[in-house]
Amino acid sequence: MTDMLVQSLRRYPVKSMLGEAVPSLTVDAQGAEGDRRLALVDLETGRVATAKHPRLWRRLLTLSATGAPGRVRIRLADGADIAADDPAVDERLSELLGRPVHLSDERVAGAQVERPAPEDVLEHGVTAEVEYATLEISQGTPGTTFVDHSPLHGITTATLEHIGAEALRYRPNLVLATEPADRAWLENSWLGRELVIGEVRLRATLPTPRCSVPTLEHGELPRAPHAVRVPMRENRVDVPGFGQLPCAGVYLEVLRPGTIHVGQPAMVVA
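User: That's the sequence. What structure does it adopt?
Assistant: Structure tokens below.
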């Protein structure tokens, strides 16, 4: 049994853009309300745009999206903002990103992203043309949201403090505060176990593989190669179906829906 507290909660209305801290999250089988319900689709390839492929899409991390479904606004790097349902949003974002894109609210079956290995990005740089894999997203989540795999993603303060990187870089929904004596990579031991937070019950499904995204600039945060180099060196984990990968954090599915609040106790049970 592991006792923790919910330190912070975040949602990301548009996939791969910066998101927002919230005092509570209502969760169900598809994940957190308003989380990754929108994404940009590259009209040239039909694939979902993500900063996992930094040569093409790292500028997404200069944008931020806030608001509940139907009221999402996107703030641009120059401080201007635009509503997600503005008729001009595709044209504005296409011009900014240098590629034709469409802001979609429904993931098509088999939707894919492009993911270079983080080792290659670290070695050759974010502007280099490197090989990439194409991966189907949301394989562990029902519905049409744009999560990477499972409905939710959590990480502990023990892991973050050991790496020495900000939670923002890993894009979690839940940051769980642990005791000072708790070890890094604690999340590895949760697989198949349940996380109970008030009325909500979650189950750990997979360790969270790390791509190059945590190393990139996030708004005003500078580059941070160590954010992935530490997991690469210390926590390569067998991720079922994906192989041995550097991991930090854990994916979670929702067994019992409800609302999670900052400050609530969280407990891992057998």
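Residues 76 and 143 are 29 Å apart (CA to CA).
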